[in-house]
């Protein structure tokens, strides 16, 4: 998801300005409808929707005009593929609470990747996480909810904070167990909050300590999503296009 798609219109499809074009992606369990932006009379631009699984879907280019029936202009297949970010998100989601796996992730910290790489990793993994089908009982702290806050252990929140992953931290905060993870000490006695302070991650520390912390401006300018039941609407501010996603 979130890649730019360009649509080239044929001569006969270049019509009046009052015609609105949109794309409909039909998958096995969800359907997405995205608005488009006209670049010039023969080209449209939109954002690919984030999908819930890796599969080939049908995409239809539709034209709408007030007082006229919706017209399907063209149809094509579109493939959502599994990439490294998806694999990483899957791995992290399944190892929530798994101490052996979480201790292994600390190995990444020793290489201290450059800031640009961290930002790229943060954006891609957080995006992939948002599109994962997490089980209803999924929790940031793992499956064993009988553990108390007094038991020292590594958590997904420690991992995200240690690497300075601002977007992923924000996502985890919104999930069950996210807030509870903030007060858990690891074997070195560090909480995610103290880790952020120790490493000088001021924005991250602010995010973790403010009661009414809002989604950081550093990426909220890219898109904003509103969920309602089986539907969600996402506004991509950069291109000013909307995506409506509904369960099929």
TrEMBL record:
Species in which this protein is naturally found: Formicarius rufipectus
InterPro entries: Ankyrin_rpt-contain_sf, Rho_GEF
One GO BP annotation of this record: regulation of Rho protein signal transduction
Identification of the protein by name: AKP13 protein
Cross-referenced SUPFAM superfamilies: Ankyrin repeat
Top-level taxon: Eukaryota
GO MF: MAP-kinase scaffold activity
Gene Ontology CC, one term: membrane
């Amino acid at each position: 998801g979130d890649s730019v798609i360009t649509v080239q219109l044929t001569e006969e499809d270049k019509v009046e300005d009052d015609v609105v074009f949109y794309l409909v992606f039909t998958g096995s369990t969800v359907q997405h409808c995205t608005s488009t932006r006209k670049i010039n009379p023969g080209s449209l631009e939109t954002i690919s929707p984030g999908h819930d699984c890796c599969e080939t879907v049908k995409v239809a280019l539709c034209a709408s005009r007030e007082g006229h029936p919706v017209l399907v202009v063209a149809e094509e297949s579109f493939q959502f593929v599994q990439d490294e970010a998806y694999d990483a998100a899957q791995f992290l989601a399944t190892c929530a609470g798994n101490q052996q796996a979480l201790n292994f992730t600390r190995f990444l910290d020793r290489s201290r990747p450059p800031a640009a790489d961290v930002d790229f990793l943060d954006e891609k993994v957080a995006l992939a996480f948002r599109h994962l089908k997490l089980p209803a009982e999924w929790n940031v702290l793992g499956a064993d909810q009988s553990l108390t806050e007094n038991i020292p252990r590594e958590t997904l929140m420690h991992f995200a904070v240690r690497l300075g992953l601002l977007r992923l931290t924000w996502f985890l905060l919104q999930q069950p167990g996210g807030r509870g993870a903030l007060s858990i000490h690891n074997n070195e006695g560090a909480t995610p909050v103290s880790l952020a302070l120790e490493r000088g991650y001021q924005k991250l520390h602010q995010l973790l300590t403010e009661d009414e912390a809002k989604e950081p401006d550093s990426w909220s300018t890219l898109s904003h999503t509103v969920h309602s039941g089986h539907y969600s609407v996402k506004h991509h501010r950069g291109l000013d296009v909307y995506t409506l996603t509904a369960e099929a």
